[in-house]
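[audit] Reproducing an earlier prediction to check determinism. Same input, same settings, fresh worker. If the tokens differ from the archived copy the diff job will pick it up downstream; this log only records the rerun itself.
[audit] input (51 residues):
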Amino acid sequence: MNSEMVQAVLDIIFSKFMLYLAPMVFMLMAVLFSDRVIEIVYKAITEKRRW
């Protein structure tokens, strides 16, 4: 019975708010990924070569 209630709550949340939640999650993923890429490029440019 407890799992049925949790399932019902999740169905309501994701059916009503997925329209607003999905773009925000996508933007968050894009920002986090771009931050990591910028950090890698910056390290590659500024790091001294070890030849």
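[audit] rerun output stored. Observation attached for the diff report: The helical segments are 2-46.
[audit] end
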